[in-house]
Each structure stands twice: as structure tokens, then as C-alpha cells.
Specification:
The structure holds 2 protein chains of 2 kinds. Chain A is α/β, with parallel strands linked by helices. Chain A is 38% helix and 25% strand. Chain A contains 9 helices and 10 strands. Chain A has helices at 45-52, 74-80, 96-106, 111-125, 140-151, 170-185, 197-202, 220-226, 232-240, and strands spanning 7-16, 19-29, 34-39, 60-65, 68-69, 81-84, 158-162, 189-193, 205-210, 213-218. In chain A, the strands form 2 sheets. Chain A has a 6-stranded mixed beta sheet, with helices on both faces. Chain A has a 4-stranded antiparallel beta sheet with strand order 2-1-4-5, with helices on one face. In chain A, a hairpin with a 2-residue loop joins strand 4 (60-65) and strand 5. In chain A, helix 3 (96-106) packs across helix 4. Chain A starts with 6 loop residues before the first strand and ends with a helix. Chain B is of the alpha/beta class. Chain B has 14 helices and 5 strands. Chain B has helices spanning 2-17, 19-41, 58-69, 84-90, 104-110, 125-149, 174-201, 203-209, 214-242, 252-276, 280-298, 310-316, 320-334, 342-367; strands at 47-53, 73-79, 96-100, 113-121, 155-163. Chain B has a 5-stranded mixed beta sheet with strand order 2-1-3-4-5, sandwiched between helices. In chain B, helix 7 runs parallel beside helix 10, helix 10 packs antiparallel against helix 13 (320-334) and helix 13 packs antiparallel against helix 14. The longest helix of chain B is centred in the middle third of the chain and has 29 residues, at 214-242. The A-B interface holds A 53-57, 75, 78-79, 81, 83-94, 98, 101-103, 105-108, 134, 160 and B 2-3, 6-7, 9-10, 13-14, 17-18, 201-203, 205-213, 367-368.
């Protein structure tokens, strides 16, 4: 692995009037890393993430994603990242096949590539029976796994997951994380926000945001040692409560 | 381009799989045009009328019998003097009074022409108009029969008088009105709903994070509705020509171009609404209350603008539908060319640019 970071953030801030939603944060993410981005609701996670994926421009600071500048090269960033949001985000009234074709299409994949990807994906997720069913008819867990696979269709360097496992049962969550590991193993960098502290344990490194600032950033193991607790949950509570 | 085609295909899937929007798109226009059409051109049946026969001769009796025999009218009262006409109208007992002049039959034979007055209650202007047309046609028919038998030209001259609303200003020009309302409904409401739906589902975020540029997303969403609205406009015009015999006196081509312009104006409004609302319900409420009501009430579709109080007349100027109705009436009914509707066209173009300008600005603010 090269040590060129896929995400490099320095003193990044976002102000809404006088309120600093994101206050001088700095961090980096290495290629192939699973980077957990934690924080309570309103801590500034989503705002920070929006700046990185190019749909919100920072007030000050520097940031590059996949080697591109967030100010000037947002369009290039968009081609190189995948995104899956906390709201389930495939089209319910389209079939599995149509969803794959549509999302492949907007990332500029050729018909052949889409066809090939679709076969791989359907086989991997075991969706053969339902390729022509509306997504609305699938169980939530399947939808979310499908949405994750769809966000990887165009083989992005980094995939941003915004609370991807909200509302899913533990078994599906486990399977979902297996998929994440597999993607990371294939060299995709994973940037994930979550509320589940057990999931934080699965990450290579974790940052915890409190009131717009990053209060802690390290491997889960080191964080637990540092805060002298047994679980990430306690680390989080100590930090978030101040 | 390929991305665009894929995007548009997806939009069509959304539209064709949602029964509600399909109904609004295609059921509504046809239902509305037929409803409005038949409500207005509907033939009349068993309308109560009264007769004031000041002549009381063979000819007038014959005519009265003809009218009594027709299924359109039933004679409910025979009045004796002119002064009772007003009271019978005021009571609302009859919709029309037929008044034969003195010496009706004699006049017809001696002077070859005789007068009959058709008085109608024009509080319902369409009804009044239809009644007077029907009576005229019965008189005409009688006159023809008369002239066939005898070789002299007798003329019965019906004099129609509308009372209570003499100028008949509110004669509904329903086709231009319905066309305007439907194009507005389909274009503005449907696009604003379909864009806010993406916001609600969270798919808008996904689209914005994708390499698609925001304007490509919007154009992709709006394009199918241009196409469907044009189809709607064509259906409405065909229905009005073939079912209701409304003439198209002007250029169909010009009508087409102006319709596309108005469709784009409405789409721009729809986009603007979608930038203002976060949910489908809000978008629908804004479209219905903020667009549909003014479009129906203030555009001159149902209520003539000239009889509105001044403040409303001023407000009506900012309603795009008002200008489009003037354009459509001009082209369809008066047969005028672009020279006469240049001002209205220019206003619509300016409005469209304004809506698009505000939307772009709002959109950017939202992205910040």
C-alpha cells in the first residue's frame, strides 16, 4: 500500500452564520482503510461528509479526496467516490435490474459493463429470483445490501456510507459488514458513519466528533486503552458527555 | 447523452408505475374537457317556459303546439299581461318567456313578417343562450314548413333579449381555460412532486453526489413531462375540435409553439416550487393552493377579469395562465397571428426566465 492518503483534511471548517458546524478538523484516511466517523446527532458528521463528497463547499481549510481538491475539483471527486446515505436510496418503483442499469448508466458505464456487473452482483447477493421484482418488495436488509453493491458499481476509490445499517437486524448487519470487509480487501477505502458502537469496533481507525471538533482519533484498541474502558460505547459516552 | 436517455427512461418508469400520477396525467384532462364540454354544450331538456300570447290566433297556436311538442320545453304557464313577466321570472318558475306580438298571424300574412320576443333568464348565461337558440330553431323550422306550402316568403323574427346579464360577458370559452388549467396542473404540480419525491426518498442526494450535474438532473426529470404535456395539449385540441366543434381559426403551428412555451413556463414554476418545499405534500399544497386556484379563478377562465375589483385585476397580471388564455383564445377563436399576441408571448418568456433564475439561485443556496 502506498502511503499517499486518499482523504487528506486540514483545518476544515464550515460556518453557518456564527455557528461552526465543523470547527477546524484535520485527519487523513489511508487507501483500503475502514475509517469510522462517529459523533452524536448534530456533532457535525453529516456536514463534514457533505463537504468531502462535493455537495457542500467548506468555509475554510484544505481537503483533498482521491487526490482532488474539494473546492476546485468536485466533479472529479464525484466520479471517484461511491455514496450510500442513511435513508435507503434505491428507487422502490424500479426493479432490481432497472436500478442497477440506471445507476450504472449515470456513472457512465457501458451497456456491456453494466450487464457484467449486474450478473456478478446478482449472483453474489443471491438475488437471481428477484431481479425483475420491484425493489419495494424486498426485505430491508436485502435492499441495503443491494444499495451498497450499487454504490460500488463504478469501482470507486472511496465509498462513503452514511449510517448504512440504520434499522437493520443484527444478522443482516453482520453480513453487511462482511461485504464492507470484502470491499476494503479489494482496495476500496471505506468511510463510514454509524451510531452502533459495536460497528465502531470493526473499523481500522475511528474518529469521534463532538460539537464540530474531532476529539479522538485512533484505532479502537488504542482508544479503549487510552480511555481505560472495555468497549467503544464507553469511550463514546465519556467523550460525548464531556 | 446516453446518461440522459437512461435518466429519462427511469422517469417514465416512475410515471407509468404510479397509478395516481397516470390518472392525473391522462384521466384528468379527458375527464375535465368532457365534463366542461358537456356541461356547457349540453342540450336542454324539459325547460320550463311561459307563454304570453297577445295575438291568440291560428299561427301563434300552431307555434305554441310545436314548442309544447318538443322534448326540450314544457310550457308551465300561460300569462295574460306583460306586467306579469317580471314577477314570473323573479319567482324563478320559468327560464324563458315567449311573447307573441299583437296580430302576430295577421302581420305574418299581410306584412310577411311578424315578431316574437324570447325573454330568457340570463343569470345562467349559457342556459339562456341555448334556450334562445333552440326556440329560434323551432321558429325557423315552422317558417320553412310554412314557406313550402305557400309560395310567399313569410318571416318570423325572433327577438332574443337576455335579462339580468345582458352582455353575456362570462360566456365560457372553456377550451382555452381547460387547456391552460390542465397544462399547468400536469406540468407544475407533477414536476414539483416528482422532484420533491426524490428529495424525500434520499435519492436526490445520491444523484447530486453522482457525476450528473444538477441541471442535468433537473432537465432529466422535467423532460418526460414536456413530452406528456404536449400529448395532452394535442388530445385536448382534438377533443375540442371533433367532440365540441370548437374551431381553430388560427395557425395550429403557432398554437403548438405557444403551448410548448406555456408548458415550459409551468415546468419552471414546478421546479421553483420544488426548491421551496421539502416534502411531496408541501409541493402538492403549494401547487394546488398557490397555482391551481389562482389559475382557475383569476386567469379569466371562469370569471371575466374585466368585472373583477381593481386589486384583483392587478394581481391577475402575475398569473401566467391569464396570458396564455388570451393567446389561446386569440389563436383558436379569433384566428390571429403572432403579431397580435407578441406582448403576451413576451410576458410568458420573461416569466419563464424569472422562474428559472430564482430556481437556480435557490438551488445553489440549498447546496451551500
Amino acid at each position: 500500500m502506498k502511503d499517499k492518503n486518499v482523504i487528506q483534511v486540514e483545518d476544515l471548517s464550515k460556518l453557518f452564520g456564527d455557528f461552526a458546524a465543523v470547527n477546524n478538523i484535520s485527519f487523513h484516511v489511508k487507501p483500503g482503510e475502514i475509517f469510522g466517523f462517529l459523533g452524536a446527532n448534530g456533532a457535525g458528521k453529516t456536514t463534514a461528509m457533505k463537504m468531502l463528497i462535493g455537495i457542500s463547499s467548506p468555509t475554510s481549510g484544505k481537503a483533498t479526496v482521491a487526490g482532488f481538491d474539494v473546492y476546485k475539483e468536485a466533479e472529479s471527486i464525484k466520479k471517484n467516490i461511491g455514496y450510500m446515505s442513511q435513508k435507503f436510496a434505491l428507487y422502490d418503483d424500479l426493479t432490481v435490474k432497472e436500478n442497477i442499469t440506471f445507476f450504472g448508466g449515470i456513472y457512465g458505464l457501458s451497456k456491456k459493463q453494466i450487464e457484467q456487473k449486474r450478473c456478478e452482483l446478482v449472483e453474489e447477493l443471491g438475488l437471481q429470483e428477484v431481479t425483475n421484482s420491484l425493489v419495494a418488495s424486498l426485505p430491508l436488509g436485502w435492499k441495503q445490501k443491494l444499495a451498497f453493491s450499487v454504490s460500488l458499481l463504478h469501482e470507486p476509490k472511496i465509498v462513503f456510507l452514511d449510517e448504512p445499517t440504520g434499522g437493520v437486524d443484527p444478522i443482516t448487519r453482520r453480513q453487511f459488514w462482511e461485504m464492507i470487509y470484502k470491499a476494503a480487501h479489494n482496495g476500496t477505502t471505506i468511510f463510514v458513519t454509524t451510531h452502533y458502537m459495536d460497528e465502531a469496533e470493526y473499523c481500522d481507525r475511528v474518529s469521534i466528533m463532538v460539537n464540530g471538533k474531532i476529539e479522538a482519533l485512533d484505532t479502537p484498541k488504542k482508544l479503549k486503552e487510552h480511555y481505560k474502558t472495555d468497549t467503544m460505547n464507553d469511550v463514546f459516552l465519556k467523550l460525548a458527555r464531556g | 447523452m446516453k446518461r440522459f436517455v437512461g435518466f429519462v427512461r427511469k422517469e417514465f418508469y416512475h410515471i407509468f408505475r404510479d397509478k395516481r400520477s397516470l390518472f392525473i396525467l391522462f384521466g384528468m384532462p379527458i375527464a375535465q374537457i368532457l365534463l366542461f364540454g358537456f356541461a356547457i354544450t349540453n342540450e336542454i331538456n324539459n325547460v320550463d317556459i311561459a307563454i304570453l300570447d297577445q295575438s291568440n290566433d291560428v299561427t301563434s297556436k300552431e307555434i305554441i303546439n310545436k314548442i309544447a311538442a318538443s322534448k326540450h320545453f314544457s310550457i308551465v304557464d300561460i300569462i295574460q299581461k306583460e306586467s306579469s313577466i317580471e314577477s314570473i321570472f323573479k319567482k324563478g318558475k320559468v327560464k324563458a318567456v315567449l311573447q307573441f306580438e299583437n296580430n302576430f298571424g295577421n302581420n305574418l300574412i299581410k306584412e310577411k313578417q311578424a315578431n316574437v320576443q324570447v325573454l330568457t333568464d340570463a343569470t345562467d348565461p349559457n342556459m339562456a343562450n341555448t334556450i334562445s337558440n333552440y326556440i329560434s330553431s323551432i321558429l325557423k323550422k315552422y317558417q320553412q314548413e310554412l314557406n313550402k306550402n305557400i309560395n310567399i316568403d313569410y318571416q318570423i323574427i325572433p327577438q332574443s333579449r337576455m335579462i339580468y346579464n345582458a352582455e353575456l360577458k362570462s360566456v365560457y370559452m372553456f377550451v382555452p381555460g381547460v387547456m391552460t388549467v390542465i397544462l399547468m396542473l400536469v406540468s407544475a404540480m407533477m414536476t414539483s412532486i416528482s422532484i420533491t419525491r426524490e428529495k424525500e426518498q434520499g435519492t436526490m442526494e445520491i444523484l447530486l453526489v453522482s457525476p450528473l450535474k444538477p441541471f442535468q438532473v433537473i432537465i432529466g426529470k422535467v423532460f418526460p413531462y414536456i413530452f406528456l404535456s404536449v400529448i395532452n395539449a394535442v388530445v385536448i385540441v382534438l377533443l375540442s375540435i371533433f367532440v365540441f366543434n370548437v374551431p381553430v381559426n388560427g395557425s395550429l403551428f403557432l398554437l403548438g409553439i405557444e403551448s410548448v412555451l406555456f408548458i415550459i413556463t409551468s415546468l419552471a414554476l414546478g421546479i421553483l416550487i420544488s426548491t421551496l418545499s421539502a416534502t411531496q405534500q408541501t409541493a402538492m399544497m403549494i401547487s394546488l393552493m398557490g397555482l391551481m386556484l389562482p389559475t382557475i379563478l383569476l386567469s379569466g377562465f371562469i370569471f371575466p377579469i374585466s368585472s373583477m375589483p381593481l386589486p384583483l385585476q392587478v394581481i391577475s397580471n402575475i398569473i401566467p395562465a391569464k396570458w396564455f388564455i388570451i393567446i389561446v383564445k386569440g389563436i383558436m377563436l379569433k384566428g390571429i397571428g403572432i403579431g397580435y399576441i407578441f406582448k403576451e408571448t413576451a410576458i410568458l418568456v420573461l416569466m419563464t426566465l424569472l422562474f428559472i433564475g430564482i430556481s437556480v439561485k435557490k438551488y445553489k443556496i440549498r447546496l451551500e
